[in-house]
Specification:
The chain is mainly α and 637 residues long. It is built from 24 helices and seven strands. It is globular, with a radius of gyration of 26 Å.
Length: 637
């Protein structure tokens, strides 16, 4: 069976050769491959352009009018979290270390409760435009400046890793210079991101989320079939390869304690708490409860599924190298494992092109969110405080220009990350050094009422200085924290530096807090986990109405009136247990729209026409409501 497969692969349309000048195993393709790839990109650009028409304001561009259902947010988050770097870096580690590679992807559950009941309701109810905006409310404008710098560095670095990943995916296929590929990909992906905004991103990510999950599982199925079935696959792997957890402190570049601190703490907490793109996705949800549902669904179901999707190519590659050493080229670069495995196991160039297109989908799904987030931070935290009292149309134009600039800057930043042996090491170093000050400041700000403004300043500045000292003298400063891990002199403590950096920033924040004066309880109402009810009150503008009522279905009638309120019959308001001034959510009854055609509003003066809601022309245009379509209405608070 193996000899027949090897023979077939040898005469198949793909052929491989080693490019000595580049040190890369090249994969040759034909015209049909590029027809599929460019067809995919054309489809995505068209999809994004279509939904760009829903951007009328900066609120639409950044937050999609806070209108979408949990299931739509869930799938778009998968597409954002499972970036193209996930396929490449986890395939590389899976090829090296086996099933223990899944440890790096299964740590998000650890801090999810803190996010669900702390950070998410705070950012939603305070209606902040960006994470730095929270720091000004909680502390002052100077802390906001520091947070802005930190968040921009974080997001630009993430964008760079995404572009570098796509370059490395296409490098063995195109044979072009790596940076030429990166610039071409940046131009293509930047087009629809710049003009699409958050609504276009959510809907393209919905499609791409399904595509990349299907493609990842498809690779696993094809790989199992290629090696002769699951039994053959399983028996070809060594017992150590099947271990679910890595060794405690070895090897130096992949161990249990290092993975926990780097990926579980710095990585996962950074992604959940300071990834402006992810936060904006939750702020596009129709309610806090829908945001919570999407998080739980992701952690319990979609995240484990994603883990298999992004890691299995490495497992298949190891099985092939053990069963069919003549088929596998041992000189393959680790970051090319995914692409090489996909080229071996596919028996159709169309299928191979589809898989590569799925990786492209993953890239665009991650990068589009981050570029949109950079635009949100720059416009709201840098540009608006300087250039005040301009029209919303002006700020929307600036957001588009910033999106294009972020794309260019991200592509240029790939030069730094290309110095690491693999994408995984590059990503790990990035998490370990950029995330700790910001995460510590967010956590202490949310959960410790006494945390002071001066402590926040010193967490950023003093923490960064001590982190730099540690990087200069790792053998002296970081060694006491290393848990017995042997230091790699070329990349010292790539993993465990996350522990040192986190503890240093935490220590600075705590010590300075104990010697400085905190803000009063009144000044921080609604900004900590201890006063979320106050945040809810600020969000509504009055006391929340938590009396549970029923949803109702109504038809709409256009009237002249105030765009800020909507009018229902007295009987419908009684069914919903609603009072004048309560918040209300109206959406098209068709659930598959996910809230695309919907609005938030306020209950106004009731009328006598049961089963009807009075809406103004402005509300109809905002909600995109269609004549004759039933609306589902629910009281919010």
């Amino acid at each position: 069976h193996h000899s027949i497969v090897s023979f077939y692969h040898g005469i198949f349309v793909f052929s491989c050769y080693f490019n000595e000048s580049k040190g890369i195993l090249m994969i040759q393709t034909s015209t049909i491959f590029w027809v599929v790839i460019f067809g995919y990109f054309t489809l995505i650009l068209g999809f994004g352009s279509y939904f760009a028409r829903y951007n009328r304001t900066t609120s639409d561009f950044f937050f999609s009018g806070r209108r979408f259902s949990w299931w739509l947010i869930s799938m778009s988050i998968v597409a954002t979290g499972v970036g193209s770097h996930s396929f490449l870096k986890y395939s590389a580690k899976a090829y090296q270390h086996g099933f223990s590679s899944t440890m790096t992807y299964m740590n998000d559950w650890f801090f999810v409760p803190f996010f669900l009941f702390g950070w998410l309701p705070i950012v939603y109810y305070t209606k902040i435009h960006s994470i730095p905006n929270y720091f000004e409310l909680r502390f002052n404008k100077w802390v906001r400046v520091l947070a802005t710098i930190a968040i921009l560095v974080y997001m630009i670095g993430y964008i760079a890793i995404g572009f570098l990943t796509m370059g490395k995916t296409l490098e063995p296929i195109l044979g072009w210079d790596l940076y030429t590929i990166i610039m071409v990909v940046a131009v293509i992906s930047g087009v629809y991101i710049t003009f699409g905004g958050q609504t276009a991103i959510i809907f393209t990510d919905l499609a791409q989320g399904f595509i990349l999950l299907f493609a990842g599982l498809f690779v696993f199925i094809l790989g199992i079939q290629y090696v002769g079935g699951f039994g053959s696959f399983w028996n070809s792997l060594s017992p150590e390869f099947k271990l679910p957890l890595a060794h405690f402190n070895k090897p130096s570049n992949f161990n249990f304690v290092g993975i926990f601190w780097q990926d579980g703490v710095a990585g996962s907490v950074g992604f959940l708490f300071m990834n402006q793109g992810l936060i904006m996705r939750f702020m596009a949800a129709k309610s806090v409860n829908d945001g919570r549902k999407s998080v739980v669904f992701n952690v319990l179901f979609l995240l484990p599924l994603s883990t298999i999707c992004v890691s299995n190519a490495g497992w298949i590659g190891r099985s092939i190298s053990n069963l069919m050493p003549n088929t596998w080229d041992a000189t393959i670069k680790l970051d090319h494992v995914f692409t090489y495995v996909a080229s071996i196991i596919t028996t159709s160039e169309v299928v191979f092109a589809f898989i590569i297109a799925a990786v492209a989908a993953a890239l665009m799904s991650t990068v589009d969110t981050l570029i949109n987030a950079v635009a949100a931070v720059v416009v709201n935290d840098v540009y608006k405080p300087i250039v005040k009292n301009r029209s919303d149309k002006h700020y929307l134009k600036i957001a588009m220009i910033v999106s294009a600039g972020a794309t260019i800057l991200g592509a240029a930043s790939t030069i730094f990350f290309n110095n690491f042996p693999t994408l995984y090491e590059a990503h790990g170093f990035f998490h370990s050094t950029v995330v700790p000050p910001m995460v510590v400041a967010i956590f202490l700000g949310i959960f410790w009422r006494r945390y002071t403004t001066w402590a926040a300043v010193m967490t950023f500045i003093g923490g960064a200085f001590l982190m730099w000292i540690g990087s200069e003298y790792p053998g002296i400063i970081i060694a006491p924290f290393d848990h017995g891990i042997v230091m790699d002199p070329d990349h010292p403590y790539t993993y465990i530096r996350a522990l040192y950096n986190t503890l240093i920033c935490l220590g600075v924040g705590v010590i300075v807090t104990l010697f400085t004066q905190p803000k009063s309880e009144k000044e921080i109402e609604g900004l900590t986990v201890w006063s979320i009810e106050k945040a809810r009150e600020y969000f509504k503008g009055s006391k929340p109405n938590d009396e549970e009522g029923d949803k109702v279905e109504v038809m709409w009638k256009q009237i002249e009136g105030d765009d800020s309120t909507v009018s229902f019959s007295k009987s419908d308001m009684e069914k919903m247990k609603a009072k004048m001034g309560d918040l209300v959510y109206l959406s098209d009854k068709r659930k598959w729209l996910g809230g695309l055609k919907s609005i938030h509003s306020v209950f106004g003066e009731p009328h006598e026409e049961c089963g009807l809601v009075y809406l103004t022309d402005g509300q109809l245009r905002q909600g995109l409501f269609v004549e004759g379509k039933i609306l589902v209405v629910e009281k919010e608070m």
